[in-house]
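MODEL INPUT / OUTPUT PAIR
PAIR INDEX: 1
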Amino acid sequence: MIEIQETYKDCLRIVIAEAGVSNAVPEISSDKEPDKALRKLLSESKPIEVTDDSAHYEIVFDDYIAYAVTNESYDGGIEEKFEGRLARIYSESAFLNYIGQGTFATEDYPGPFVHYGFCCLNQIIDVVSERPPTVKLINA
């Protein structure tokens, strides 16, 4: 996630960059990681990163019921049903449970809504909205 902002009343703008596997192999010293086996594993791993050549996407929800940003290290806990991989549409989720219990949003008011999820490198973004977002490639 590069940016998230509320641009005007009930409008949410998210900018996400496509990350890729770097060719750089990090050097891990014994000072940084004393465990030899873990140090070997880390030194053979390649970081995932956003570069100047990464595609950036702007995702705009003209209105929304709720959104949340969660540190990806703390995501999970219940079984969820969704379609997609990094951009998801959920049919069952903890966030939908929260909407049902923590708000007065229903299928009747404001109307049918959908839980959209975006799995980023360090964050999970959850948005519940009546309408799908507009998605635009803003650089290539």
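PAIR INDEX: 2
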Amino acid sequence: MSEENHIIDTLPLEELSALLQEAGYRTNETEHNGSKQLLSASQGIGFAVRPGNMLGEGLLDFTISCALRIQGELPEGLIPAWNRGKRFSRLSRHGDFLVLEMDVIVAGGVRRAHVRANLEIWDRLLQEFLLYLRNYRDENRNESHDKGDASEHEQAISTEATE
């Protein structure tokens, strides 16, 4: 049986890093609050891969997370609208950050191709997220101009990536 078809039920962080690199991402291993995580980027936007539950040296699950700094106020409805429309991720606000997250589960046994497919889904979600923010900003800009109110919402969605 080839390694590609081999069922895995844990995934060491080093193997996850290798899978990210095979998918074309550069990765850096860092430590955050006493645990290791991977940092990478897609579409020029940074994201982190944080370990979840561990079994020995292997991950049973992990979370991919992108945090964008909010400037100003978020338009009402932006977060719930995203969460209603997307199945594999969740959007939330944590202080001054808008956070997109996606969980990946390895426990129970999956193939490496499953993990790679989840990385592809993440990349697609990140692209859609950036487009969603841009479109939401533009829609609110048009509504604001119609009302004669400039850009409180426009500022809020002009975000910068953070690690």
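PAIR 2 NOTE: Residues 112-147 form the longest helix (36 residues).
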